[in-house]
Amino acid sequence: VLAGLLLAHGPLAVLGFTPSDELIKTLAEVTLVLVLFSDASRVGLHELRADSGLYVRLLGVALPLTIALGTVLALALMGTSIWLALLVGAALAPTDAALGAGMMANPVVPARIRRLINVESGLNDGIATPFVSVAIAAVAGGHGHGPAAAVAELAVGVLVGVAAGGVGGLLVNTARRRGWAAEGFGGAAVLGLAVCAYASSLALHGNGFIAAFVAGL
Predict the structure, then answer these.
(1) Which of 83, 119, 151, 208 could form a disulfide with 201 if both were Cys (CB 3.0 to 4.6 A apart)?
(2) pLDDT digits 0-9 by tens, 3-31
(3) How would you write the chain as a 3-class SS string?
(4) What is the pTM for the complete model shown?
């Protein structure tokens, strides 16, 4: 951070470069994609099956209720339009386990609890994103996507994630096992799968963040 300040401000501002909003947005999205993919890759699928009921309750019941409660509170406190209230509720509902990284890495916390929080935090952003998009479009006076389009985005993201992670992971493992790839190629290939899942989902009008997380799984 100190080096960045010295190189971008004051008499030592040798960079002379101001990043655009679009560049910052792209960097933030790519970073989130890699974090989601990496976190998901540490989760065992057999453990997911064992707690599937809890994940359904967390993501299918608790998250929508949190968005709804946030929307009602925004309406009561701000006295604004329903769409702006929905924007506030949907934007604030998803939690990010990165904020509690110390707890996530603490062996004192039961592994099952850490796993539940990790998976929920990985999927809630993607589920909340369609609500945020609809609210932004409505606030701006545009025409937002309906519930069917939001569900379609999630479904495409899941399918693309399964395809990219499953097929891509199988190809990478086969190449490494049979010596078709250089020893140092595996890491770059895995990062490529994360970007591939995200970009492919966006190309098919799906949710890229859900695709990245599912591909990691």
Answers:
(1) 208
(2) 877 777 767 666 666 778 888 888 888 88
(3) CHHHHHHHCHHHCCCCCCCCHHHHHHHHHHHHHHHHHHHHHCCCHHHHHHCHHHHHHHHHHHHHHHHHHHHHHHHHHHCCCHHHHHHHHHHHCCCCHHHHHHHHCCCCCCHHHHHHHHHHHHHHHHHHHHHHHHHHHHHCCCCCCCHHHHHHHHHHHHHHHHHHHHHHHHHHHHHHHCCCCCCCHHHHHHHHHHHHHHHHHHHCCCCHHHHHHHHHC
(4) 0.63
